[in-house]
Design goal:
Number of strands: 9
Structural class: alpha+beta
Largest sheet: 6 strands, mixed
CATH topology: tt1808, chain A
Order of helices and strands: EEEHEEEHEEEH
Number of domains: 1
Amino acid sequence: MPLNLPQYKFNIRHTSSGDKIYDRLRNKYVALTPEEWVRQHFTSYLIEHKGYPASLMANEVPLTLNGTSRRSDTVVFNRNGKPLVIIEYKACSVDISQKTFDQIVRYNMVLHAQYLIVSNGMNHYCCHIDYDSHSYSFLPEIPDYNTLTEK
């Protein structure tokens, strides 16, 4: 399915249990779901077009929220290993709603990142959290990695 992102070439395997796509951040093949299709395109976009170091990115990052195990779709870290960006993906057929933002904000209660990104492959939203002023603002586009680390 075409997304509102550049096209990339991916390693895809057709197996008896379904199609699998190679995730270079996890260094393994994973089930090719519609959400995974968005994740692979978006992480490639960040690395190839926005200068995000793959070595500072991780997919399916475990966290504990109110005693429950959860997984954040993608976390981008700063050079000191602290979470800088949390990204939540939805399949392109899923509208981004308040529920999606509520989910990523709950994850951020644990991770304390400065930036939150939500994407369904068609629409992308980036929010900067200012902890000093207890405010947030939506950015007009996804910033380059170097821009994030300058603040």
